[in-house]
Write a structure and sequence with these properties.
10-stranded mixed beta sheet, 22% helix, 4-stranded antiparallel beta sheet
Length: 294
């Protein structure tokens, strides 16, 4: 037979059900916010020096996970490159990297204190990019916690001229080409004996999309026998290189001039031989006549 509930029972059931809904909602919110990763959005470094990429995490449990993997990647998703990975098992105080781990990377923080900051030694301009820190829990498939925004590493470097050369020919004319590297991207100027060369004579040829740290500049209508300076500068310093454009080489001999020269040399040789023969003949005749007189 159906159970009849009094008004008091209905009120008591409603309160109990409402309390269960609140508790369940709090558990879900707590589970969603159980882990948090904290890292700066950008870090700047100077080429050739070390840099630390900070990253820390927190979770609601009072005890630290007994085992964990710490992973750092350059990039995110399928295109990501794993740069560093270490493992801490059974409450170990050490996070052990793989034997083939690149020694430029090492864990700077103490993972037992929720600090998994990464240290990079001797950074280069190619290290510029977005880095992501991640914690994985062994034995819990698909359980990992990552800084989803990542940290952008911006490496800065003083300008460096990679190459300076002259291109072209005597018929089409010469131009000077200067390839420069630096971050922030250097400004390029051309200098000559009469001062700064500006206007349409100097313009950008190319600029790398990745890193934005290389550029090229060319100077048209450079004159043979001239001296030109490519000067690059940014907020960290400057660099320059000098190009000497050699004067035109002597005109190459044509086939006709080569033949004329050959004929001239042969004629000269024959002439010398003829003179020598005449000299020898005269000497012989003189000896003959001298012998006849005796």
């Amino acid at each position: 037979m159906p159970m009849r509930m009094s008004a008091m029972d209905v009120q008591r059931f409603s309160k109990t059900f409402g309390l269960l809904v609140v508790l369940h909602g709090a558990a879900i919110a707590k589970d969603d916010d159980s882990w948090s990763m904290k890292a700066p959005t950008e870090v700047r470094a100077i080429e050739g020096y070390p840099v630390v990429l900070p990253c820390s995490f927190s979770h609601p449990h009072h005890t630290h996970p007994s085992s964990m993997h710490v992973v750092w990647t350059l990039g995110h998703g399928r295109a990501a490159t794993v740069l560093f990975r270490c493992t801490s098992l059974n409450n170990s105080q050490q996070c052990q990297p793989k034997p083939d781990q690149d020694q430029r990377y090492r864990l700077e923080g103490n993972h037992r204190n929720h600090d998994i900051s990464l240290r990079l030694n001797s950074v280069t301009l190619k290290d510029s990019g977005r880095y992501f820190c991640r914690v994985e829990l062994p034995g819990h498939p698909h359980t990992s916690f990552e800084n989803t925004l990542g940290t952008r590493l911006r490496v800065e470097a003083a300008p460096r001229i990679l190459s300076l050369s002259a291109e072209g020919s005597e018929t089409s004319g010469f131009k000077a080409v200067c390839h420069v590297q630096g971050s922030p991207l250097p400004d390029v100027q051309w200098l000559a004996a009469d001062g700064v060369l500006e206007g349409d004579t100097s313009f950008s040829l190319s600029q790398e999309a990745i890193g934005q740290y290389r550029t090229s500049s060319q100077l048209a209508d450079v004159k043979p026998g001239g001296q030109y300076i490519c000067a690059a500068s940014n907020s960290l310093g400057k660099d320059q290189a000098t190009l000497y454009v050699l004067p035109p080489s002597p005109e190459r001999l044509t086939g006709k001039s080569s033949f004329s020269l050959l004929v001239l040399l042969l004629a000269l040789a024959l002439g010398i031989k003829l003179l020598l023969a005449l000299g020898v003949g005269a000497w012989v005749i003189k000896r003959v006549f001298s012998s006849g007189d005796h």
